[in-house]
Amino acid sequence: MVVSIRQLAQWKKEQRAIAVLTAWDYISGRIVDQAGADIALVGDSLAMVALGYENTLALTLDDMVHHARAVRRGVQQALVIADLPFLSYQINSEDAMRAAGRMLKEADVQGVKLEGGYPAITTTVQRLVQAGIPVMGHVGLTPQSINQFGGFRQQGKSPDEANRILSEAKALQEAGAFSLVLEHIPTELARKITQLLTIPTIGIGAGPGCDGQVLVLADVLGLSDWQPPFAKVYAQLQQQGIEAARQFCQDVYAGSLHD
After folding, report:
1. Residue 243 known to be catalytic
2. Catalytic hit among 54, 115, 161, 183
3. Average pLDDT for runs of 10 along the chain of length 259
4. Which CATH class is domain 5-254?
């Protein structure tokens, strides 16, 4: 079954959970798709897990188009959504339109994700949706604002912060976003937002009360050097990969590769 945006809304009504995993190339796209994930998110987290940057800010639009195109070739069933990178959409909606247009035309993704919910972003979301571009929102901890936040700390702990995030979530829904990522916010706040909105919420470090959950595939597989405290690790492929490569090297050095 090929997943559509319309199905996500129906699944929320049916209380059917939505599974989302990130992907950054052809192989990871195939893994996510064949695992049965509903959404393959080409997240800007690829800046760290695939390109070795310390955060997401260095990622360019060309980088995202390149990686999203590779993921798309590996996915047959899942809905493919791609992040717009830092400063490709924040300055004005014309830049956002060009960036989102490139993602849909050149990478053949089915929608884009934007971080933040302040008025300029909601205006941009509205314009993109009016142009026929599906948009997923993202509030709470927004990694592209790491310098402003002073690190990857939980958001929404104070009443003022919680009210701001709730207002942003409602504004993004009104602007036409088809779904909303809630990242690293208190469980009760995430549950409240999920209950108030008619669009699906996808949580990451936001507790079990969301309509769906997303994790970075590299964290799930144990490929990352560090995982956030809310990431459940299901395998230890980095260590297994190192050991397999070490055994190959030892065979070469010993002249026993073809024994």
Report:
1. no
2. 183
3. 95 98 98 98 96 94 98 98 96 94 98 93 97 97 74 85 97 98 97 98 97 98 89 96 97 90
4. alpha beta
